[in-house]
Amino acid sequence: MERSLKLLFLSGLIWMLGAVPMVHAQKFGYIDSEFLLNKHPDYRLVQNELATLSEEWKKEARKLEQDIKEMYSSLKAEEVLLTEEMYQERLASIKDREKEAVAFNNRVFGINGQYYQKQAELLQPLQSKIFDAIDKVCKRFSLAVLFDKASGPLMIYTDPRHDYSEFVLQELGIEK
């Protein structure tokens, strides 16, 4: 009787263990978004367009600075010929021009300036493509978490076996 109870208990235990779903460890991986961007041919086009725009805006900013310098040197040269009122008027116009230059630089290169807006606009489609490829790779390899090696000092050590950047490149159709 005791033996049959043990067998019944063991068979029940085995059945319960078999009925409990297996718990799988979650898989983690990482990518290097800088590597992915630099490998993508569209990124070079975006970089070139941004460089061209940036150069145009920098030329405009340098021209404003040059105009201000010329205004100051002209004021200095004519200082002895001007009345105090004329001198103050010219000085005020120079200060206004300096404010215009600062406003231009802030509008174009400031935190939410035209340069950064254009950069976001141009990179958005490329980032969407890369994110879609990342999503497919994560689903294909059943990854629970995928880190970005380039996004900050979060990762202290990475094992190359867990680098999925090449798979994302393959998903994007980009060869090495």
From TrEMBL:
Source taxon at top rank: Bacteria
Coiled coil listed as a keyword: yes
Pfam families reported in the protein's UniProt record: OmpH
Keyword Repressor on entry: no
InterPro entries, per database record: Chaperone_Skp, Skp_dom_sf
Keywords (A to Z) from UniProt: Coiled coil, Signal
Coiled coil: 47-78
Alphabetical list of PANTHER family matching this protein: CHAPERONE PROTEIN SKP
Family the entry assigns: Belongs to the Skp family.
Protein's name in the database: OmpH family outer membrane protein
